[in-house]
Amino acid sequence: MTKATTKKTMQRKHVNIRFAGDSGDGMQLMGTLFANASAIKTNDLFNFADYPAEIRAPAGTVHGVSGYQLSFADHKIYTPGDKIDVLVAMNPAALKTNLADLIEHGTIIYNADNFTERDLTKAGYAENPLSNADLLKHRLFAIPMNELTLAAVKDLNLSQSQAKKCKNMLALGIVTWIFDRPLQPLVEWVQQKFHADEQLATANVTALETGYNYALATDLFTEQYTVNKADLAPGVYRKVTGNQALALGCVVAAQLSQQPVLMAGYPITPASTVLHELAQYKQYNVTTFQAEDEISAICAAIGAAYGGSLAATVTSGPGLDLKTESLGLAVMSELPLVTMVIQRAGPSTGMPTKSEQTDLLAVVYGRHGECPIPILAPATPHDCFAITLEAFRLAIKYMTPVIILSDGYLATGADAWRLPDVKSLPDLKPQFCDKPTTNFTPYQRDPHTLARPWVIPGTPGLEHRIGSLEKHNNSGNISYEPQNHHEMVNLRQQKINGIANDLPPLTLLGKDSGDILVIAWGSTYGAVTTAVTELQQTGMKVSALHLRYLYPLQKDLAAICKRFNKIFIPELNSGQLHRLLRMELFIDSIPYNQITGKPFSIAELKQRITEL
Amino acid sequence: MKTSPFATDQDVRWCPGCGDYAILANMLKVLPTLGIARENLVFISGIGCASRFPYYVNTYGFHTIHGRAPAIATGLKLTRPELSVWVVTGDGDGLSIGANHLIHLLRRNLDIKILLFNNQIYGLTKGQYSPTSAQGIVTKTSPQGSVERPLNATALALTAGATFVARCFDIDGAGLQNIIKAAAKHRGSAFIEILQNCNVFNDKTFVHLSDRQVRADRTLWLTAGEPMLYGKDKNKGLMLQNNKFSELTVAAPQDVKKLLVHQPELPDPHLALHLSQLDWPDYPVAMGILRQVDLPTYEDLIAQRAQQTRDDHPPKDLTSLLKAGTSWIVK
Ligand code: SF4
Predict the structure, then answer these.
(1) Which of A573, B195, B210, B301 is the most buried (most CB within 10 A)?
(2) Which of A280, A329, A425, A465 is the best residue to mutate to test the B interface, defined by the most B CB atoms within 10 Å of its own CB?
(3) Residues 464..503 of A with a Cβ closer than 8 Å to B: which?
(4) Which residue of chain A has the CA closest to B79?
(5) B324 in a structural domain
(6) Which residues line ligand 1 (CB under 6 A)?
(7) Residue ranges with strand state E in A408-561
């Protein structure tokens, strides 16, 4: 006990920790629990999970490494951080794949039992990296995790492999002590998690507590770190991934509209988890449909929209290509439909588990004919919720398909979400046309929104035919008349342009005029916000603007741009917003592009902006 | 046709003499007899000559894109199971570009009726061979004769697990009306292959079977519970011997006992599949309802799952719904 009292407690403002191990090592569970314990300490947090592309890569190899990164801080944070302070490596492969991300003098806590010659060979190490001088600049903590775990659970009736599996909980116990997280809630969550098997629950709790007590008692750790409560707006918070938030958005849209929701999808990385999530909400008037292909998925959603449901489909790049023709049908038949596109590295199959922002111009311009569709992009994982409600609002009000452009980084990343007051959520109740009138026609337009009426089949007296052929304005009958086509093309465009009048004004981060304006969209929000805020603190005259609406663009954008000397647009593509703004608004800008499948580093952004 | 209460004010734009007119006329005759309110009927089509159909029926109608009608109908039916949903498609629309959706709709057994107008040609694009065209057919894209073997639509539907499968000629009004009525009553996917004459690009493709002079001898009209008899004089029948069909000339009344009796309700689709593949001149072509079995519909099973979920986990209010999982309070 005297040992414990000699330990020092150190304050930290911000910690980035990454748990890495074999995909079978339970890194995601360990990370999630640690994040929850950090949430209880009311730190702000952001996490990012990195799964291997292969489902069952050979154990111990670099292809099988699964990672969970958590950033927690005593202030508001927007990204999981550029570099990691602490790496928990369960094997040499985990060390190898993550070492480059560690800060200059970082901390490595590793499972010493898994660094045998065999393990090193599997990871592709010719010699033991632990004796490398480069590694020694970090603080290394060798923990015999297998041995400690097996000893801790030896009295329980577990097989060797079951017992060994608890080592992630042992590791969790250790970091829980080091970062001064509360143990008790963790014990409860672990019990809950394994409630089906009492034996396993006991084993995991035992391993967790053993790890915690080990860290407390051992001479190895002389310091404990604590990160104070963050100064966050009061409210109820939860952690949410982007894809969870998209799914919740659909569930809540069903409640707010008092209409059923049909979500149709086809399995595709990184979009499938939206479908998985929603499949668990059947009691909320949500139907999920796993279609035979991407085209069927969007078409089923169009059929549901035609039937008066809120309808959505979710996909990623290759699926977007396949859905393109059907998006045209939704434009032509003027039906409300939300299409969620979770961008991933392309072209073609590309890098399915890696994120980029390369589908912007594809969704804005990539359809045959004149085929305008509003495009929205969430800024953070939790913003995916609000953007879904906004997409449904616009889709219903303007009778149009709407595309949500998310990406793999938002899809799998999670941040702390202050739950909205349900009374503040928008009213999504559609105004169905259900009164038979003698002169009803399917393309009679609302004079303000230019939307056509939404009639549910089954409504007596309003039987009508619609279709993909050009139709006569108003009557909806097939028409190839030249002047009518010209008018219809213009009307469809005007309807979408008019949405700009229905969008909130832009909010600037920083002064509303100055030297440099950084414009971003989508998941780069976190890195750009952090970089610009830090530069502002150094006195730089830089402001930032984040676009959640990409088509149509907000009306005040052009005027704001005029008040800055330089416009800088960092994007994870080859300059698509840069080109969009040039085409749509004649705004010239300095593009900064990175297409590595990885998010921007804050340091890099700061440097680029400083050099402008 | 304009006199039917289900006719629309649109001019019908098929080529004069097209088999589609007869199909439409029969549909317009049957619709008022089905006991389904006009507003509860929806016709959904893809692209092709057949797919103009919805414009000519005064119900709800949606003329969509090439091959996708079954998928759109699926979404509609999931949302509005109470509607009577009909898909109108063709051999190009339903068996080429949209074959995947057709197969899966049938496999799932949604309560949707599919009329596939098979004219063995692409008509609207002005005459290219289709997946059902006879091998050797000379068309604009096969000037030396097509090398492709044709697909049997009825056999495909049976293989996909359709619970109601029928085949008929466009010009067999009585037969077509009976099949449409039976399909309307059937709860589940109903697939009707209609052999339809395209008099512009593939004229008389079926005339060797459908012509009144020869039809009785070259086709077999299947009737549930009846022996498989055909021929002008009803004196020919089908037997099954050593797993092979053989023809029997009925000489004496007791010969009829040797014939197969049509049982569309058999759970095993083997015999129906076998029948669907018979072809003249070796055998008569099987017409009528080949298969009709009762299986739960997709939408019913989906509704059951939803009900089960509601019973096990009743919905919560919005605030609790959002809070689900681990939440914490910042004061
Ligand atoms: S092309 Fe053939 S199928 Fe099409 S409308 Fe003319 S006759 Fe009928």
Answers:
(1) B195
(2) A465
(3) 464-469, 477-478
(4) A304
(5) no
(6) B 14-15, 18, 20, 49, 119, 123-124, 198-201
(7) 414-418, 465-467, 508-509, 514-521, 542-547, 549-551
CA distance B164 to chain A (A): 21
Place of tokens 């577990």: A158
Q: Between vectors from CA A507 to CA A503 and to CA A510, what angle results, nearest 5°?
A: 170
Classify residue B148: in a domain, yes or no. yes
Domains detected in chain A: 8-226 (3.40.920.10), 238-424 (3.40.50.970), 508-611 (3.40.50.920)
User: Inter-chain contact A303–B65, Cβ cutoff 8 Å?
Assistant: no
d(CA A500, nearest CA chain B) in Å: 29
Q: Are B94 and B46 in contact (CB under 8 A)?
A: yes
- Tokens describing residue A225: 């770190």
Q: Is B99 on the interface with A (CB under 8 A)?
A: no
Report the chain B residue with the minimal C-alpha distance to residue A232: B330
**How far is the C-alpha of A313 from the C-alpha of A323, rounded, in Å?**
10
Per residue in A366-378, pLDDT (tens digit) is 999 999 999 999 9
Question: Nearest 5°: phi and psi at B116?
Answer: -105, 110
B81 domain residue, yes or no:
yes
ipTM of the modeled complex: 0.97
- Residue A550 and residue A519: Cα distance in Å, rounded? 12
- Residue B29: give its domain's CATH number: 3.40.50.970
Determine the Cα–Cα distance for residues B208 and B195; give it in Å rounded to an integer.
12
Nearest to B323 among A238, A292, A459 (CB): A238
> Could you read off the pLDDT of B54-67 as tens digits, one per residue?
999 999 999 999 99
The whole-number pLDDT of residue A571 equals: 98
Task: Summarize the confidence of residues B211-224 as an average pLDDT.
Answer: 97
Sign of CA dihedral A387, A390, A396, A400: negative
Tell whether B112 is within 8 A of chain A (Cβ).
no
Domain that includes residue B111, residue range: 20-205
Q: What is the pLDDT of residues A549-587, one digit of tens each?
A: 999 999 999 999 999 999 999 999 999 999 999 999 999
Least confident of A67-81, B97-111, B140-154: A67-81
Say if residue A401 is preceded by a cis peptide, omega within 30 of 0: no
Residue B291: count of CB within 10 angstroms of its CB: 26
Token pair belonging to A233: 């707006």
Q: Do A466 and B55 touch (CB under 8 A)?
A: no
C-alpha span between B287 and A214 (Å, rounded) = 80
- Structure tokens, A539: 């006195």
Distance B12 CA to ligand 1 centre (A): 12
Q: How many CB atoms lie within 10 A of CB B314?
A: 8
Residues 413-442 of chain A with CB under 8 A from chain B are 418-420, 422, 425
**B272-324 pLDDT, tens digit each:** 999 999 999 999 999 999 999 999 999 999 999 999 999 999 999 999 999 98
Instruction: Provide the number of structural domains found in chain B.
Output: 1
- Domain for residue B54, yes or no? yes
pLDDT value at residue A134: 84
**Mutate which of B12, B14, B205 for ligand 1 pocket (most atoms within 8 A of beta carbon):** B14
